[in-house]
Design goal:
Neuraminidase, 7 helices, 10% helix, zinc, DNA recombination
Length: 528
């Protein structure tokens, strides 16, 4: 095992706890930034280009038939193959936290459409689910099992917010363990089935799951209810006959009490367990090898890398599996730094270069990484551009289209999912296209008041005809809140000075024009 130091060349960072990495044919892609995506990369998916000891993030695009994919932190994801021997695969993404700290219950399938030196295109499709749909959650795992020529995904564990009826102002964002139910999802029909197994008594989150064929092994995890890290090792076997599926669970000896660990696959039957916590205040610096053979699991301790003093003494760490036996690890920078979200990164390679070339990916793996949900307790703010140097093998790719946050505006103010006004009712989780020109983002228009700000056309009650007319005409637009203010601030037209006449002369001119009866009544009212 070798540890490569990664030194940052900029104080900005997109990589924050809760991110995910996708590996398509040896190319690593980043997903799950903490803030909303910027305009230069609206998908929030980046290609990690390692070249000449420098790692750059290049934005990826989605195909026209793709759905909207929010940046989700702490989701569950794994690869989906048509069968256990297939070389082609997709990624399944389920659950996770949005930048607004809302939890998602949606399932997405992401596949690589096109990859060349200048552009990467993905297709993202939302999967419609029915039946016993798992509730919105994060910190859980998802795996795919293969049995009798069929495939199903298995969802287990995680955390969710307390029920809406039990929420109070003080406990609005309090989380609880999800029930220890096992969910099977049929991808062909989108049908979900839940199973309650007596061996699974407590809810678990931030655990590790490794799958092979029709069996899933669940290791470690943290229980909020008991504040314990489970030392148990669970073996879940899924049989998929012509009728109803059969799910069984067996508790095995030899488990490890750990949470938030990372698993990477080094060979067809071998995995490496890295990182995590063995208690709330103690990291786990020991590494293990997991071997799956003949429907059995074997866990042995292996030599750990030479951890740097910064890693040994830091309070928390986070990271994710890069695939091909490599792990990206991060630790927070010292508090004395000017930028609070400055992190240090390392690339841990769990096998030699020769093994890396011969490695072939055939087994399923899913590991949920976190720092015991640091998103609720650490001061990390919205993400920005990230570029750092590393001692790693480089890819033969072009330098063009590198992401640079300085080329764009702050999406926190001009994003599509902002609260544009006091009457704004656009919610990313419930929004549906309103205008015929909308696809996966709401139409917006610039209000010219002051320095200018963006508002949703739908919130301004603009008709589609008016919206098209404003977009084509070179005129200034003012939103509903500033249109009256704009009128009041207009400079009045210049008028001539009025001559003031003496009061007596005014009375004489007035009385001369009146008839006698009117004159008397007027004088009476005037001098009363």
């Amino acid at each position: 095992m070798s540890l490569h130091v990664v030194s940052a060349v900029s104080n900005l960072s997109l990589l924050q706890p809760g991110f995910s990495l996708l590996n398509f044919d040896g190319h690593v892609f980043f997903f799950g930034q903490k803030g909303w995506p910027k305009r230069s990369c609206p998908t929030g998916v980046f290609f990690l280009d390692i070249k000449q000891n420098e790692l750059k993030m290049k934005p990826a695009t989605f195909s026209k038939d793709s759905c909207y994919l929010p940046p989700l932190r702490y989701p569950a994801l794994c690869t989906l193959r048509s069968n256990a021997e297939s070389d082609e695969y997709q990624y399944i993404i389920h659950g996770g936290k949005t930048p607004n700290n809302d939890l998602s219950d949606k399932m997405y399938v992401m596949s690589l459409v096109n990859k060349n030196s200048k552009k990467t295109t993905f297709q993202c499709i939302e999967k419609d689910l029915g039946g016993d749909v798992p509730e919105a959650r994060y910190g859980h795992t998802i795996n795919v099992v293969h049995s009798r020529g069929k495939s199903m995904s298995v969802i287990f564990g995680g955390r969710s917010y307390i029920p809406l009826a039990q929420r109070t102002t003080e406990k609005w964002n309090s989380v609880i363990d999800c029930l220890p139910s096992v969910f099977l999802v049929d991808f062909e029909f989108g049908c979900c089935m839940s199973y309650v197994l007596p061996e699974l008594q407590d809810g678990l989150s931030f655990h590790v799951s490794v799958a092979r064929n029709d069996t899933i092994y669940i290791l470690g995890g943290h229980s909020l209810q008991n504040n314990l890290r489970s030392p148990s090792l669970y073996k879940i076997k899924v049989d998929l006959p012509l009728g109803s599926p059969a799910v069984t669970c067996t508790v095995l000896p030899g488990g490890i009490s750990v949470s938030s660990a990372i698993v990477t696959q080094t060979s067809d039957t071998e995995f490496v367990l890295v990182g995590g916590y063995q208690s709330d205040n103690q990291k786990r610096l020991v590494c293990n090898t997991i071997v799956l053979e003949d429907n059995k699991i074997k866990i042995v301790e292996r030599a750990s890398p030479d951890w740097t003093p910064d890693i040994k003494h830091c309070r928390m760490w986070f990271g994710c599996d890069m695939g091909k036996g490599s792990v990206l690890l991060g630790i927070p920078g010292p508090n004395k730094q000017l930028i609070s979200d400055a992190n240090y990164f390392y690339i841990l390679r769990c096998k030699g270069a020769e093994e890396d070339k011969e490695e072939e990916w055939t087994a399923q793996i899913c590991s949920q990484t976190s720092t015991e949900d640091p998103g609720d307790s650490t001061p990390f703010e919205d993400s920005e551009e990230f570029c750092f140097s590393a001692e790693a093998n480089s890819f033969d790719l072009d330098d063009t289209d590198t992401y640079n946050e300085d080329d764009e505006e702050d999406e926190s103010e001009t994003g599509y999912w902002i609260t544009c006004s006091a009457s704004c009712n656009i919610d990313i989780n419930t929004w549906v296209p309103f205008y015929s020109t909308e696809l996966n983002k709401p139409a917006m228009i610039l209000c010219s008041s002051g320095a200018g700000h963006w508002v949703h056309a739908q919130c301004m009650d603009l008709s589609e005809t008016m919206l098209l007319r404003l977009s084509e005409a070179n005129v200034k637009y003012f939103c509903n809140e500033h249109v009256d203010l704009n009128k009041g601030l207009q400079t009045p037209k210049k008028v001539g000075n009025l001559k003031k006449q003496p009061m007596k002369l005014l009375r004489k001119k007035t009385t001369r024009k009146l008839t006698t009866p009117t004159k008397k009544s007027f004088l009476r009212r005037l001098f009363e």
